[in-house]
């Protein structure tokens, strides 16, 4: 038997902090669901905003569903989380003591999305000028804070729970301090239909691996008044007319739409009558869970109505096809169906 401190170093046992999982080689997991719910409730319930038009606060977290886990394999930390949250907001305006309420819906909180990519929609429970004033505060000031909380949550998972699965090694190495990066969405391998060869071809959709995105900006002029053109994007009967019946529309904020047999789907995020429409828009053959943001703006030029379109987050491989699709299935179809391409107002 060797004396203490002597002998072959390969056979000498030693104390080390990662003795239960040397060099963090084996799979380990921490369930972070319960503390995550506590985190969200504490953060969201602390939200409040006061402006010249009134004050708004989050009065209740009405829904917090999902799960979260932090895993380690061979020294690599892997995060999985998916949450759907609904908040109740309430407030009062500077000129009214009425308790005005509404809802905030936060979806797609997952490791695949950054805080800027999650879906947040807002609603006011009643119509009216006072309600709209507070609703505007919610959209312009509370919603950005909600995104900030989601960003803080990602850091919270890493700092508070990542260290539980990564034990300090002999060299003193612990959890990697690099921020969590969203995983690239997997490309869709099955494509059942095409949009009359105008939108994304199946070969390009399945070949795309980097999912790089870009923006589209388009404009066109229509020989009609603003209201007539605006109705072409929210009136179900008009939309069915120029889509030849292939349109299902719920024209209200948070309402869904589906065109061309479900090839185009999305949500109305904001509707400002005769001014602008903000859409959450996706094409069926895009990679799973990939959406773009579309803003339509309407301007009366006197002799016609000018429409400008901004689409953010379009896969680079589909830019030309998406541009062509907007003109073929929307702009030109509207002009052809209602005669807005020529003549006078």
General description of the model:
Helix content is 26%, strand content 34%. The chain is built from six helices and 13 strands. It has helices at 33-45, 129-165, 202-207, 226-231, 236-242, 319-338; strands at 28-31, 48-51, 54-73, 76-93, 100-110, 119-124, 213-222, 247-249, 256-259, 264-272, 276-283, 292-300, 305-315. A seven-stranded antiparallel sheet has the order 7-13-12-11-10-9-8. Strand 10 and strand 11 (276-283) form a beta hairpin. Helix 1 (33-45) runs antiparallel to helix 2.
Give the tags:
26% helix; 6 helices; 34% strand; alpha+beta; globular; 6-stranded antiparallel β-sheet; 7-stranded antiparallel β-sheet; 345 residues
**Which parts are unreliable, with pLDDT below 50 for 5 consecutive residues or more?**
15-26, 172-210
Encode the helix/strand succession as letters. Answer: EHEEEEEHHEHHEEEEEEH
Q: What is the count of helical runs?
A: 6
What is the strand content? 25-35%
Largest sheet strand order = 7-13-12-11-10-9-8
| Secondary structure category | alpha+beta
Number of strands: 13
* Helix content bin: 25-40%
What is the makeup of the main sheet?
Answer: 7 strands, antiparallel
So what's the overall shape?
globular
Distance between the termini: 104 Å
Radius of gyration: 26 Å
SSE diagram, text form:
Elements: E1 28-31, H1 33-45, E2 48-51, E3 54-73, E4 76-93, E5 100-110, E6 119-124, H2 129-165, H3 202-207, E7 213-222, H4 226-231, H5 236-242, E8 247-249, E9 256-259, E10 264-272, E11 276-283, E12 292-300, E13 305-315, H6 319-338
Antiparallel strand pairs: 1-3, 2-3, 3-4, 4-5, 5-6, 7-13, 8-9, 9-10, 10-11, 11-12, 12-13
Helix pairs in contact: 1-2
